[in-house]
Write a structure and sequence with these properties.
The structure is a single chain. The protein is mainly α. The protein has a domain of 56 residues. Helix 2 crosses helix 3. The longest helix is centred in the middle third of the chain and has 15 residues. The protein is elongated. The chain starts with 13 loop residues before the first helix and ends in a 15-residue tail after the last helix.
Amino acid sequence: MPKVVDVNSLSMSDPYLITKEFKSSNEFSQHIERLAHNSGSFIDAIVDYCGAKDIDVESVKKLLSPSLKEKIKAEAEDLNLLKGGNKTFKLPI
């Protein structure tokens, strides 16, 4: 007799749920870039996407393309969100 499995009781990881929606990490990164174009911020786009899908923000870093990671890093540096690294501090003007 076949074993009955309750699908709701299975725990699926966040990257698994994301890759079910997108075929590749590149496709996911392009989706985030489109969201950022509308919202004006890459960081906000990722946080909004993860909040809407109830996904941990840390789980998407494996799915970001290197170019998107650089854009996020540049945005974080402009907002003075990174410790160390850039020694030329900018005053918000």
